[in-house]
Amino acid sequence: MNPNLSIVQPVLVQAFLTLMLLFWMGKERYAAVRSGEVVSNEPGVQPTWKGRAGTISNAFHNQLEMPILFYVVVILAMLTGSADYPMTALAWVYVILRVVHTAIHTTYNKIAHRFLVYLLSNLILVAMWVKLAIHVLTAG
After folding, report:
1. Which residues neighbour 44 within 8 Å (Cβ) at sequence distance 6 or greater?
2. pLDDT tens column, 22-51
3. Which of 54, 57, 66, 87 has its CA 20 to 30 A from that of 136?
4. What is the C-alpha to C-alpha distance for residues 97 and 124, in angstroms, rounded to an integer?
5. Which residues lie below 8 Å from residue 7, measured CB to CB, with a gap of 6+?
6. Do residues 17 and 101 make contact, with C-beta atoms less than 8 angstroms apart?
7. pTM listed for this prediction
């Protein structure tokens, strides 16, 4: 199998996770506005989302932070020819940890557990960037 194709699979899972949270967030926000729990009449000021709407909103926004560097490192790995088996394995571990992070965040939300998974996922992301840098700096 072409390594470039297999590294796209975890990217698709990460994108699906983000999109799933987008729609879930929309559902929760709609319910919060409809119930009168959240009202925003001031132009240009975002409402403060409370309860379930706030939790899902925060989980969604988490997917727009560090995963941006994941998308970039995967694209660069594909362009530089470093999208090999180890890089793909790291990508899968990263995405699995992001799924676990989201599951913790949207269920029981124990901060210590969520932080541990967040830390591990970021260490994997750093490893991906280091692997890419070594590949590029040593001319593959």
Report:
1. none
2. 999 999 999 998 988 876 767 767 778 889
3. 66
4. 9
5. 74, 77, 78, 83, 87, 88, 91
6. no
7. 0.91
C-alpha of 35 from chain center: 30
Residue 4, pLDDT > 70, answer no
Fold adopted by 3-37+51-137: Four Helix Bundle (Hemerythrin (Met), subunit A) (1.20.120)
- Tell me the torsion sign for CA atoms 95, 128, 119, 23: negative
* Cβ atoms 124, 101 nearer than 8 A: no
Q: Which phi and psi angles does 49 have, rounded to 5°? A: -85, 125
Q: Which burial class, exposed, middle or buried, applies to 6 when counting CB atoms under 10 A from its CB (0-12, 13-18, 19+)?
A: middle
